[in-house]
Amino acid sequence: MLSLTPPKPTATPFSPSPHRRHQRPSHLKPISSSSSSSSSRRPPSPPPPPPLGTAYQPFRPPPVPLPPQYRSLSPTEILSILRDRLGRWHDYAPLISSLSNQGFDPPSIEESTGLSGVEQNRLAVASRVRETLLPSLPPDLLSFFDSAGTADSLYALRLLNASQRVAAATRVAALNLDPKAAQDLARAIKDFPRRRGDYGWASFSADSPGDCLAFTYFRLSREVVDEAEKILALEKALESAETEEAKKRIAYELERTSAGGGGEDDELAAKMRVPVVRLKYGEVAEAASVALLPVCRATEGVRGVEEAPRRLQWEGDLGVVSAEKGWGRWVVLPGWAPVLGLGGESGVAVEFADDARGIPWGKRKEEGVLVVVDRKRKEVVDEDGFYLVGSGGEEGLGVERGKALVEKGVKEGLGSVVMVVRPPSEEDNQLADEDWD
């Protein structure tokens, strides 16, 4: 009998295959045993796609168009170019995204090329940043970023908007700045708008990268204690500033500091006899002596000031403090001379809220302050001094200059202001390390 064997079914392009995605691409030929010396150059197979419902997906930056000479390359050839760093960095950097789109993950790329996952990310992001600069940056400045190492400089500019990025890249290229200087510049530009209202801010221009960096040094000069460090910071600010107004403002501050002035909070504080200081993190723990003061809120009015304990006594070798009455709110300050001069008998700290209404030097500040008051010195005898007064009867408290009180015929306040304490700065001008890595 003649038997008929059914023909084997042939796979059509549309027939599903459960193992198809794990098969080797047709253009990659298997390496024979005779060529075992080159087996290490075989690219790893792309990992299978994650199962459905997986929340985490590796970050893949927006793709950058491949240069024409790289568009027909196989994965093996792409890995070879990356491994040998053939060409300029921004020419082969887009190949990383190309491999990612084909299913290669950072560890498999690192295994074949030696580029760590961090390096892959920096190159891919820097390449994208460079692409955004092409329409605006002149060719002579753009060529600065062809050299090795400049990818890190462009990576530092990634968080800036388009106009800020062009201005920053122009300064980096014109002054031949290294990646660390480029990162400092980018942070200063990013932080500058957040500092609106700070001392001297209006004299600097947000459109000038140099002014933004100069303002960072300008702020630093007001946060250090050593006079030599203040002058050094101001000199760096003057060197970085670009606008004439900023240069004049820095030169004025430098002249005042060199002459022994400066250190107050703003122009008004510079003329008054009340020190305005910013508390630093850890300063209380490191202080050789401390002062303990009762605290009342400005909204508690005259009654809050009057009811705060007046007599504090340190008892025993352990320094236990006892007060004449119970009180719920206290503050510990470093043993600054104006505070220790109160003797623990008449001092009180008045807390003004974030809007700082009612105090002359806080109208532009979006932060609370503590006003330290000596309740024994109520009589208005110093026209240049400042005094705590009731503002609107029992409804709140305020601070006024002695001269203004004399003109109003007021002869006595609630106490004389001896110091103003600002809270520690959160340093929100600097981005966290994880934002840059």
Automatic annotation (TrEMBL):
Please, one GO biological process term?
ribulose bisphosphate carboxylase complex assembly
Report biased composition (Pro residues) as residue ranges. 1-10, 43-52, 59-68
Provide the alphabetized UniProt keywords: Chaperone
Q: Name one GO cellular component term.
A: chloroplast
- What's the superkingdom here? Eukaryota
Which stretches make up the Rubisco accumulation factor 1 helix turn helix domain? 75-133
Question: For bias kind Low complexity, which ranges apply?
Answer: 32-42
Q: Where is the Rubisco accumulation factor 1 C-terminal domain?
A: 274-424
Claim: Glycoprotein is one of the keywords in the record: no
Could you tell me which residue ranges the Rubisco accumulation factor 1 alpha-helical domain spans? 149-254
Q: Where is the composition biased (Basic residues)?
A: 18-27
By its UniProt entry, which Pfam families does this protein fall under? Raf1_HTH (PF18579), Raf1_N (PF18578), RuBisCo_chap_C (PF18087)
Query: What is the protein name for this chain?
Result: Rubisco accumulation factor 1, chloroplastic
Q: Which lineage?
A: Eukaryota, Viridiplantae, Streptophyta, Embryophyta, Tracheophyta
